[in-house]
Prior knowledge:
The structure holds 2 protein chains of 2 kinds.
Chain A: H1 3-24, H2 30-35, H3 42-53, H4 56-69, H5 74-98, H6 103-110, H7 114-146, H8 151-201, H9 206-209, H10 221-231, H11 244-260, H12 262-265, H13 274-292, H14 295-310, E1 320-321, H15 322-327, H16 332-339, E2 343-344, E3 353-354, H17 362-371, E4 380-381, H18 385-393, H19 398-436, H20 442-465, H21 474-495, H22 501-523, H23 550-567, H24 573-583, H25 588-593
Antiparallel strand pairs in A: 1-3, 2-4
Chain B: H1 3-34, E1 43-44, E2 47-48, H2 49-79
Helix pairs in contact in B: 1-2
Amino acid sequence: MDQFVINLLFVGASFALYIGIAIWARAGSTSEFYAAGRGVHPVTNGMATAADWMSAASFISMAGLIAFVGYDNSTFLMGWTGGYVLLALLLAPYLRKFGKFTVSEFIGDRFYSSTARLVAVICLIVASTTYVIGQMTGVGVAFGRFLEVSNTAGLLIGACVVFAYAVFGGMKGVTYTQVAQYCVLILAYTIPAVFISLQLTGNPIPGLGLFGDHAASGEPLLAKLDQIVTELGFAEYTAHNADTLNMVLFTLSLMIGTAGLPHVIMRFFTVPKVADARWSAGWTLVFIALLYLTAPAVGGMARLNITEMFWPNGTQEAAVSVETIENDADYNWMLTWQKTGLLDWEDKNGDSLIQYYNDKNPEMQEKAAEAGWTGNELTKFNRDILVLANPEIANLPSWVIGLVAAGGLAAALSTAAGLLLAISSAVSHDLIKGQLNPRISEKGELLSARIAMAVAIVVATYLGLNPPGFAAQTVALAFGLAAASIFPALMMGIFSKKINNHGAVAGMLAGLLVTLLYIFLHKGWFFIPGTNSFSDADPLLGTIKSTSFGAIGAAINFAVAYVVSNMTKPLPKEIIELVESVRIPRGAGAAQDGH
Amino acid sequence: MSDDKDNAYWSANLRIIAWSLVIWALVSFGFGILLRPLLSGIAVGGTDLGFWFAQQGSILVFLALIFNYAWRMNKLDHEHGVDE
């Protein structure tokens, strides 16, 4: 069967499943729309949260980031999982006990300040909107590659599917589609990895295969990888080359940012009890770890596979010839991906061979000059194609490729839906009910939540079709805002009886503004190219990169909140009682009946 | 329920959190990054223990920490009569 038809079958079947779930799980009340009626089992919620969290970045980009950098990019693995420890120990159980619908609502009530709530809502909307752009462009790219439709058509189809289950089903519909999407994406990620691990190491579990022996040479796989990449002048795969301070701060910023992302936190409002919120955080990380323990194996093995394809007889022998690439079935994937413009090669020295090596390395330049090479001939290799092309590189059956297409779409759509839900509940619950029209009826609020969701989808689709030039930069912004404003406010709201309304507002604004300023100084004002005074290659004071700054922003937030609270009036009695009640699990189930 | 009892419950919670966060930092920032040179003598599959902690070990420890916290806190809730 034609590959196109197989892709269409897999993607079509997965979409039919999502729509079916949407029809089955319609939301009838605001409690169902915002929190799935608080009746979601902790394991189910864990699976849904994992799909919510793992975006196109986790599914498509992360293995490529690790493959071409090695050890130094372990920051993503530790940062994006370590945040769940903070979430499980410091936030989730208490926010579930609080028993309301949005993250900003807790900040507003705890700090008895509509200003605090408004600052939180703005951070939430900016962080979620920047994040959703990446998901929507990801949907377009995946469609464009696998279904041979234009990016625009692909994106519109994806938006219609999200519309169907998110607008009608709310949190309830999103939760159950995310469970289905998790199953699709985890199978799509692990099945090719298992095949590749078996081919390379004979071990069916990729995470173990990475630390096992390379079947062809009998050497440990990582030792083999280190040897082959250093022979080509690249940095040793397992070595620590980046600067340690930024590695630590970047990991910490990712952890704090992860724990502060509202679309993840709000998923813990859906379970029945505080005890369930604790278990559910654990299950979430189990389901995330299934992918995150596989990702470094996918990265390392793909790097070895690709390098060996260019040097089929070893790095000391002749490189692969242009003729082989164009005619050998094993190299077919290169021709497929060359069409997308994401992969390219050029026989610069005209020897009919394609030499892939690091032409930036002075030692390698000498060797290359002796051998008559005139530069790296693999002229373009976009890291994002690694996971999508992996099944083709490893010559896997065509149904695996169809599955990967459906998996990539599942990862992007599930995260987009979670983000859109966070945006729409902030608009309808925090802005409309909280500020503009507090006496709105339940029916009216549900309707406004649906309208807000529909508008958010239209805006996200528009931004996905016309991504602002800074789209790639904004991930740092989303994590920076979550780390510098939302996480510290939530944590202080639970763990301190001293931080008051003025302290919280001053802390959030200080953390937010300093972080924004730092990012703009390095990435350009409002990300306009050329307006930056520094760059991440040459940061302010020569130390901290803007991507690592979220942790510093969080520290500023904590410090300012503490100082300002000490200078102003202590908390009113009823707020101290609120803090005490949040700390005690009993009564979380009862709180849900109040809605 | 008395305030003393609430305070005892909360301090017990804070102790568990503090220990968990010490281990959280030790396996990631410690073994995975800063203390990696100290672990370089321990070979694991073609590389050293620090590399394993950075790419897999820390994630497994994070999992153990969250489940341990849930289990101990749910038991503590029961002992202090604040469960539901």
